Amino acid sequence: MNRLEGKVALITGGNSGIGLATAKEFHAQGAMVAITGRDKEALERVRAELGERTLAISADVTRISDIEHAITTTQATFGKLDVLFANAGIARMEPIEQVTEESFDRSMDVNVKGVFFTIQKALPFLNEGASIILNGSVNGHVGYPGVSVYSATKAAIHSLARTLSSELSDRKIRVNAITIGPITTPFFDKLGASSQEIQGFTQQLEQRLLLKRFGNPEEIAKVALFLATMDSSFVVGTELVADGGLLVNTI
Ligand SMILES: NC(=O)c1ccc[n+]([C@@H]2O[C@H](COP(=O)([O-])OP(=O)(O)OC[C@H]3O[C@@H](n4cnc5c(N)ncnc54)[C@H](OP(=O)(O)O)[C@@H]3O)[C@@H](O)[C@H]2O)c1
Fold first, then answer.
1. Residue 1 counted as domain residue
2. Count of domains in the chain?
3. Measuring from atom 34 of ligand 1, which residue has the nearest CA?
4. Is 104 in the pocket of ligand 1 (CB under 6 A)?
5. Rounded CA separation 184/215 (Å)
6. Which of 33, 122, 181, 202 has the fewest CB within 10 Å, making it most exposed?
7. pLDDT (tens digit, 9 = 90+) per residue, 103-139?
8. CA dist., res. 229 & res. 226, Å (int)
9. How much is the pLDDT for 251?
10. pLDDT tens digit string along 8-21?
């Protein structure tokens, strides 16, 4: 069934991991899909794989001019914007003593400023009844050590889902976040920790998960699809938890 037939979706960070799986799902459901990211080769690979109804735009979410370019290009190509998945994000594994001003600013710039201004710049083009989906995390709720900055950025995302849904309700734009648990993507290779540290950390996490396994990006894409369609028409300003049972086994 083509549940997004005729719809236009913009996915930041759509060239890898969760964003890529969501781009494939939305495209398979009939949507016109624009993806962004910085890695031009990865963007081109996805564009070639998905084929028609796909736009790949090189854009860094920390640059307002790039965000504006991505949004206006999507609008110019597909004529409208129905779904925005503000997904691009990064994490560094650093105890507080090791966090530098540069790494703090980088995480805040990508994960908070990037999301905020992606939404702000998309607003003039979003249809009444559009869906904005934010990429949140279990880290926004729990206190795992070594990821204080990342966790703070995701707590900010959950807050944005609540406040912006109020601000945008007169336009019938729904804003929701997905509270995501551990998902197998290149994300963990980019934490800046040694492979040994990452292995230890991921094994510990696996034990905390009720399902005793990491999720697949496709399992998050299905949640994003629900939030993108009118199947979720009464879901607004909230968080949908897709975490393999991590939170209930932690809090
Ligand atoms: N994997 C997990 O366990 C997990 C759990 C909870 C939440 N999340 C969240 O899920 C989101 C996607 O992560 P992932 O797991 O799919 O990891 P990923 O495969 O590393 O994807 C990250 C995406 O963000 C893009 N990105 C990073 N910095 C960017 C920038 N400055 N401008 C534009 N795009 C940028 C990357 O593209 P380029 O490198 O080409 O720029 C890439 O497409 C993140 O927000 C992450 O916090 C992940």
1. no
2. 1
3. 37
4. no
5. 6
6. 202
7. 999 999 999 999 999 999 999 999 999 999 999 999 9
8. 6
9. 65
10. 999 999 999 999 99
